[in-house]
Amino acid sequence: MNSRTAYIILFAGMLALASCTSGRKFTTNYYKEHELALQGIRRDFKVLYEQHPFSLEFRDKEFKQIGLEILTDSIRYIYSFHTDESNLTDTLRKYHFNEKKINQLINEMRVTHCTWITNLDYYENRDKKQLVFISIRHKDLESSRKVEYFTLAFFDNPQLFDDKKRLLDKADRKKKSLRSINGEIFYKLTDRVCYAFTGHFR
Fold first, then answer.
1. How far apart are the C-alpha atoms of 179 and 177, rounded to whole Å?
2. Cβ neighbours around 186 below 10 Å, total
3. Share in percent of the chain as helix, strand, coil (round to 5)
4. Less CB within 10 Å around the terminal CB: N or C of the chain?
5. Beta-carbon neighbour count of residue 40 at 10 Å?
6. What is the pTM of this model?
7. What DSSP character marks residue 178?
8. pLDDT tens digits for 43-64?
């Protein structure tokens, strides 16, 4: 191995270590600072979702363009709005949403840089359950390689994790198989909240 190759390998390793350290620091700082707000968003969303299933996203970095997915028994309706447009209110009224609570949720998401919130189905021992899935776009992640979003999964019940704090599949306790969410491996923040860094928000 020549000195040039050794230097490239060393430099790549230093970049990876810096990225990993930066990611851990961001995770600790961000969640500690916003935990109460994020838990509030989760609770508000779950209440609203039980009244009428939906997903909500911000489509731009300025947090002005909203995407609203409204779920019915057979059809998924997808709408796009600017936050100042009156047709957002018209659509919420059409589908009998609580306008005040939805607008409150939108404002809470904007403050905490949340770009996407939805419910995801998963199974434990053949029992269907749901988790709240939140994606966050933050300026401190823009310099990281291929990392744009800090993604959180909120479970209703305590989860299992391995010695590296990776989320495990409860249905396979003996083999300790990892559970992926949308193809990503998630890591422990609390016994009910885990995270991943991804290049996509869904």
1. 6
2. 22
3. 40, 30, 30
4. N
5. 15
6. 0.80
7. B
8. 999 999 999 999 999 988 888 8
